Amino acid sequence: MSKAPGSGSAPYYQQQQQEDPRWKPWMVPLILIASVAVFIVEMLINNCPAHPSPYGGCVARFLHRFSFQPLRDNPLFGPSSSTLIKLGALVWDKVVHQHQAWRLITSIWLHAGLIHLIVNMLSLLFVGIRLEQQFGFVRVGLIYLLSGFGGNVLSALFLRNGVSVGASGALFGLLGSMLSELITNWTIYSNRAAAILTLGFIIVLNLAVGTLPHVDNFAHIGGFITGFLLGFVLLPRPQFGWMHRHDLPQSSQPRSKYKPYQYVLWVVSLLILLACFTVSLVMLFKGKNGNDHCHWCHYLNCIPTSKWSCDSR
Among the options 35, 81, 107, 168, which is catalytic? Predict the structure, then answer.
C-alpha cells in the first residue's frame, strides 16, 4: 500500500519579484478535510467489533465501531482490506476484468490507516499550501488529481496483486511540479543551486524509501512523472521584462510574457504526457503486464536483500 513523501518541508524559493500575487489557499485544506471525512466513513463501515478477525481482537475497542483492525491484519491502525476494496481501492483484476476504471480515481481518497492518513496529510500541507498560494487552486488541483491518476495507472500496470490506496501519487506529482516549475522559471529565482539540491534530495530520499517492502513505489514514480510534465504546462511564470513593462517606453515593450524556451517546454511536455497516458491506458485495459516489457523495473519497487523478500508484494 502507498505511503506518502517524507514529512520534511519542501524548500521555499525566494523570488526576486516582490509583486508576486498570492491566492489564499482553500483547496488544500478542503482536500485534507475530505480525506479525514472519508477515513471516518471507512472506519464506520468497517465496524471491527461486528466482524471478528482471525488475527485477534480489535485495537482501541473503546472506540466501539470505530476501533481498528488487529495490528497483524493492519499495522497502520485502519480498516480491513475488504472494506477498502468495497469503498474503491485499486485492485488490478477489478479495474481490468470487471471494468471498474473509477477505482483509478477513488483510491486516491482512501487511506489504509490513521498513520497513513497523518503522514500523507502533513506532506500535503507542506507541499500543497505553497503551490496553491502562488498558482491558485485550479492548476494545483489539476496536478493533484491527474498525478494521482497517473500514479495509479503505472501501479496497476506493474503490480497485479494486492490492494493499493492513498494520495502518494498525487503528492509526488506536486513534488514533480515543483521541480519543473523551478526549471522553467529558472531565471527569476535566487539561490537556484540550493533550491534544486534541496528539492532533489527530498525526491530521491522518498523514492529510495519506496524500494522498501510494502510501499508502492510505482505510484510514486507515476505520480512524479505526471506532475513533472504538468508543471511545465501549468506553472510557467511571466518573466521580469513583461512584469515591469509599465516602466519601459512603448517602443521597448516586450512582445510576449513568456520566453521561447517556456513555449518549447510547454509543447514537448504536453505531447509526452498525452502519449504516456494513451499508451499506458491501452496497455492496462488490454491486460498487459508491464513487467513483461521491462524485466528490471520490479527493482524500482522493491530491492530484495537478506533482511526481507519482495515475493509477497
Answer: 168
